[in-house]
Amino acid sequence: MTIKLYNTASRRKEIFEPLEPGRVGMYVCGVTVYDLCHIGHARSAIVFDVLSRYLRARGFEVTYVRNFTDVDDKIIERAREMGRDPGDIAREYIRAFHEDMARLGVAPADHEPKATEHIDGMIRMIRTLMEKGFAYEVDGDVFYSIEAFRDYGALSGRKMEDLQAGSRVAVDAKKKNPHDFALWKAAKPGEPRWESPWGPGRPGWHMECSVMSSHFLGNTFDIHGGGRDLLFPHHENERAQSIAANGGGFARYWVHNGFVTVDSEKMSKSLGNFLTIRDALETYHPEVLRLFLLSKHYRTPLDFSREAVMDLQAGLLRIYRTLQRLEERIGSPKTDQDPTGALRNPAEGTFPADFVGVMDDDLNTAAAVGLLFEKVREINRLMDEGVSKELLEKERDDLMAAASVLGILRESPRDFELGLAEAAGRLDAGKIEDMIRQRAEARKARDWKTADAIRDRLKEMGVILEDGPGGTTWRPDV
RNA sequence: GGCGGCAUAGCCAAGUGGCUAAGGCAGCGGUCUGCAAAACCGUUAUUCACCGGUUCGAAUCCGGUUGCCGCCUCCA
Fold first, then answer.
1. How does pLDDT run across A406-448, given as a tens digit for each residue?
2. For helices A306-330 and A413-424, what crossing angle results, to 10°?
3. Separation CA A416–CA A430 (nearest Å)
4. According to the model, what pLDDT value does residue A425 have?
5. Distance from residue A299 (CA) to nucleotide B48 (C1'), in Å?
6. Residue with smallest Cα–C1' gap to B41
7. How long is the CA A300 to C1' B68 vector, in angstroms?
8. Protein-contacted positions of strand B (CB under 7 Å)
9. Domains of chain A by residue range
10. Bridge-partner residues for A225, per DSSP?
11. CA pair distance A257, A260, nearest whole angstrom
12. Is the omega angle on the peptide bond into residue A233 within 30 degrees of 0, that is, cis?
């Protein structure tokens, strides 16, 4: 079986073959750290987290690089507004990013370089571009000349004429061509600065990704990812710089995730319709959010709404209830083995093979989630039929293999339910158990009226009772 | 203006040439239960925005229409 990925550069799905068999180099554009991240950032981070997990589960050795843009106009502007040091702002939001990602279960990348750590490399690259005739300096600014790069526009599928026709940007008189872009920006008073052959200044935005990707992955590497909005101009420019300066092919597969929208409109700072990860986690359990963001194919826009998220929550809860039942029957899962082992060489017609089949097809997590639910129904059926412990263990291992690639089902079932309840309000376990005892006495006396009244009262408190052969248990009404 | 994407049941969402159009949520009927809850079983799109065309055969390919969205400017 082979993995297929949609390559934005060719606008079609392609069979994925890494440059070096068995090894994958993957670079994903991270965030500019001037504010808290919103759930659009979360989608991107989660999609590429799943891609790296999946590639590893399929036996590839992955080197995953995700950068931080920690020097940039927006950071400088924010610092000025707040009367603070730009470096402090960047550090603060890098910390916030790590906290948010940890809560969402997004694993750290193998390398998380910051732009400011690679200024020397950027200066070297700019010098090379000037020597090769791709860049020119004007009053301490250095620009890339897009006309010098014949292939400019090939990645995003644009023609230079089209670009000019729609341009609304105020043209910088220093530029030879309005779409030339800054490689180096001369520092204005009070701005962060580094010494360079063109005087003090800072790098343009696109430089960092070119330099850091080649530093960690080489001049030609396998996967370059990011949000769809980065395709132009950011990725087009990165590519133009890198190929012009280094030769090589730069990224071989370009993978772009779609946006999170609200009321069908892109979530963005300028529209003011964004929801930060933090705010979302006040209301929704991290795994609910994660499953929601994976419930639609990564390339299509995903509309965020409370109803849609809560629907997924109901579904995830059902999966956890099945895990709870399993635990009661066959005990807790073993934790000392690689959960994804079942995906390595799955036998045809089995659940792991089906899962691999849909994931191989351009990371179809939506279909994968569907398979997960089918498997859950089957496991419940098997438990109703009373099959052997060995079979149930096998079934659970298969389920957990898929779940671990998606990064869900990481909690104990009880913790998950209580976690949901925490968002809805706190429950007093002692009082609840007291009332359950009273109800048990009433039931013993066949006083159904009293028993039902107590149950109703608990329901109002947000507690659901379940009478089973082993007595009554309770769970939060979520 | 240029380029691109999307339109599948009450809602969310897979499926891109051929068995009965996945799955989730919600609803309804049933099994189980003192009654519930949970779980399971059954059920809910003769039809895939609309109009043409290609084909033995299309939700899937082609042309057109409508609607929504994105990129072209910092943006995941």
1. 999 999 998 999 888 776 566 788 899 999 999 999 999 999 9
2. 150
3. 20
4. 62
5. 21
6. A381
7. 14
8. 1-6, 11-16, 22-26, 33-41, 68-76
9. 4-135+148-153+205-266, 306-417, 427-476
10. A28, A255
11. 10
12. yes
* Nearest-nucleotide field for A477 (CA, C1'): B37
Provide the token pair at A199: 């005087």
Distance A260 CA to B4 C1' (A): 18
Residues A277, A103: Cα–Cα separation, whole Å: 10
What is the H or E stretch that residue A133 is in?
none
| Interatomic CA distance for residues A452 and A339, integer angstroms | 44
Identify nearest nucleotide to residue A43 by CA to C1′ distance.
B76
**Residues A15 and A3 sit within 8 Å (Cβ to Cβ):** yes
In whole angstroms, B46 C1' to A34 CA is 55
**How large is the ipTM?**
0.95
Query: CA A267 to CA A38: how far, in whole Å?
Result: 8
Integer distance in angstroms from CA A312 to C1' B49? 27
* Cα separation, A421 vs A426, whole angstroms: 7
Residue nearest to nucleotide B31 (CA to C1'): A384
Written as six digits, the tokens of A415 are: 């913790």
| Per-residue pLDDT at A326 exceeds 70 | yes
The integer distance in angstroms from the CA atom of A440 to the C1' atom of B39 is 23
CA distance linking residue A58 with residue A471, whole number of Å? 44
Hey, which residues does A31 pair with through a beta bridge? A68
What's the CA dihedral at A354, A254, A168, A80 to 10 degrees?
100
Which class does domain A4-135+148-153+205-266 fall in? alpha beta
Residue A338 confidence (pLDDT): 87
Q: Which nucleotide has the least CA–C1' distance to A324?
A: B38
A95: which residues sit within 8 A by CB, 6+ positions away? none
In CATH, the number for domain A306-417 is: 1.20.120.640
What is the CA A379 to C1' B46 distance in angstroms? 33
Residue nearest B71 (alpha carbon to C1') = A229
